[in-house]
Specification:
The chain has 104 residues and is mostly helical. It has one domain: Orthogonal Bundle (Helix Hairpins). Helix content is 74%, strand content 0%. It contains 3 helices and no strands. Helix 1 packs antiparallel against helix 2 and helix 2 runs antiparallel to helix 3. The longest helix has 31 residues. The mean pLDDT is 86.
Amino acid sequence: MITLPNCLLLSALLFATGVFGVVARRNALIVLMSVELMLNGVNVAFVAFARFYPGGAGAPAGHVFVLLTMAVAAAEAAVGLAIVLAWFRNRKTTDTDEMRTMRW
């Protein structure tokens, strides 16, 4: 049986893995994937609270937040990948230390 603490533990693990990826990695693509992992951890928490909220699974608020978060994640991925692709075409690297100054 899946309980709310189990779902929140999974959510926290996903979010913590994403934070570690953002902090520890130097590749911009890995950082973008880690941000997506953090957003998915938040989505799991939203769905878990929507499911286990008193009043039940009929409350759509958590699911609406998940859909909004997924839309933001899609936009973030598109813009982030476009920036990384433009940077790679000019500098031939995806190292985030090189991206600190966005001078061409």
